Amino acid sequence: MDLKYLIKLKEEYLHLCKDDTFDFDKFNQFAIVHHSNSIEGSTLTKEETFILLNDALTPKNKPLEHTFMAIDHFNALKYSIELANSKKLLSVETLKDISAKVMKNTGSSISAIAGDFDSSKGDFRKVTVRAGTSTFMDYTKIPKRILELVNYINKEIKIVTDFESIYNLAFDAHFQLVSIHPFADGNGRISRLLMNYIQAYHKQPLTVVFKEDKTDYYQALVDTREKEDISIFRKFMYSQTEKFFLEKISELTKTQKQSSNQKGLSFLF
């Protein structure tokens, strides 16, 4: 990872955003929703996601569940950014609120030997969960581990100031939450929202995990756990950050050239 190069890309991206009349903050939020949900199986295209969230037009011939996933994720993202912008620190209940928003229309009440819980309300799981070859910690350990993570983030988020330390904290929190896997469903989306919350707290661009890199993303998570080396996951996430900056710089440069040659601006994905 070339940190100086990444910072240079970030500055170029922010400069282009400042000079552009298009609402790139909103566009990027739509993109985050699209990629994050696609990783979890949503079939909505970028265009369908944008139109759904911008114009409230439901895509045809797509599962209704995928429409709900997009709407709920967008509301959860806005909530996370609002928390960050108001400089509100995390709590266990706040994390559950984010989960409840992500799973509002696709979660359900679940009966388990240890008791009933509701994924649509942000309850912690009371069952054993597996993802691929990974089996996650016993559900009885979740409350303590989540409290430790929340306390750690609240302490560090007030200390980190530079690009690298902010993004390291965001990536580490992402990894830790998805590794705890506290919820029955939605853990990946919630962990990526936690990462975005930390970035937004410090007014930094939000990192996207691209759907086409899903396999590498999962492998980075597995390798980091097996080798107990967080640098593996950080390296992958910095590569995603670089990809995001390069993609947006290209898009912004193209649209600004177009706008200088015509009166109206037509923006397409």
Describe the protein's architecture and organization.
There is one protein chain. This protein is mainly alpha-helical. It has a single domain, classed as Orthogonal Bundle (Fic-like fold), CATH 1.10.3290. The chain is built from ten helices and four strands, in the order αααααββββααααα. It has a two-stranded antiparallel ribbon. The chain has a two-stranded antiparallel sheet with strand order 3-4. The active site is at residue 181.
What is the fold's blueprint, element by element?
Layout: H1 3-18, H2 24-39, H3 46-55, H4 64-85, H5 92-102, E1 109-112, E2 115-118, E3 130-131, E4 134-135, H6 142-156, H7 163-180, H8 187-201, H9 214-227, H10 230-261
Antiparallel strand pairs: 1-2, 3-4
Helix pairs in contact: 1-10, 2-3, 2-4, 4-5, 4-8, 5-8, 6-7, 7-8, 7-10, 9-10
